[in-house]
Amino acid sequence: MPELPEVEAARRALARVAEGQTIARLRLLHPSLARRVTPARRRLLAGRLIERVERRGKHQLLHLDDGRTLAIHFRMNGDWDIGAVSDPEPRFMRASLELESGTRVALTDMRALSTVELFDEGEGAPELGPEPSDPAFNAHTLGVALARRRGAIKPALLDQKMVAGIGNIYASEALWVAKISPKAKAASLSAHRCERLVQAIREVLFDAPAGRYWAKHEDSRWNVYDREGEKCPRCGATIRRIVQAGRSTYYCPVDQKS
Ligand SMILES: [Zn+2]
């Protein structure tokens, strides 16, 4: 599944070809996508200028010069395939944004779960919490948000209203870095542990590509994710997998404390 750094990379690739460009047409090839934006609304996109491509959480938002916003979410398997309108259509192309420049931005998705939505001016974009990089995301605000939650910390972290853009992989990884059990009660996390968790989230998300986090364990991208039965890189205990709210969670049962 594309996680936040991958979505940010996709946004940058899209921005490079699309910002300041004019839309020729939007094609929605998959029925589930076509249902969401009527042909009449789609036709009105022709001739619109793409002013800016922004990322909010894992949504990519194309801000148009008429105030509308085109929002794309890759869900499980989506990706961009950027080429020319005259190129052969890529496999699993579900939608394509054709620009007057001759560029075709194809949304490819084997499982066709990606979404494309068109918001009118003022309708706003999806409801999301602060970005992990935002100073508004800190130990205090996290503690306040968690205090209202029932249940365990791991599923709470996946709630995009809590903090935007943390996916299943990074939720497990951040809890491991912070030495917090995924089963710990969200509402009773101490201020000190909230602080550690905020730092851990930033570390796994933003230090990732170039930083120490990846260099430390060169044999694998992850410390615990998808490593059930292997040794914890920190203490050597056996990594476990549990299912929380229908999603796999990986953790070290020894040094991640409830
Ligand atoms: Zn451990």
Summarize the structure.
With 258 residues, the protein is α+β, with helices and mostly antiparallel strands. The chain has helices at residues 4-18, 31-34, 39-43, 139-147, 153-157, 168-177, 191-206, 212-215; strands at 23-28, 50-56, 59-64, 69-73, 79-84, 93-99, 103-108, 115-119, 240-244, 247-251.
If you had to describe this structure to a student in words, what would you say it looks like?
This protein is of the alpha+beta class. The chain has 2 domains: 4-119, Alpha-Beta Barrel (N-terminal domain of MutM-like DNA repair proteins); 139-251, Orthogonal Bundle (Helicase, Ruva Protein, domain 3). 26% of the residues lie in helices and 22% in strands. It has 8 helices and 10 strands. The strands form 3 sheets. Strands 1-6-7-5 form a 4-stranded antiparallel beta sheet. It has a 4-stranded antiparallel beta sheet with strand order 2-3-4-8, covered by helices on one side. Helix 4 (139-147) packs across helix 7 and helix 6 (168-177) crosses helix 7. The radius of gyration is 20 Å and the shape is elongated. The model is unreliable at 210-218 (pLDDT under 50). The chain binds zinc ion. The site of zinc ion has 7 residues, from loops.
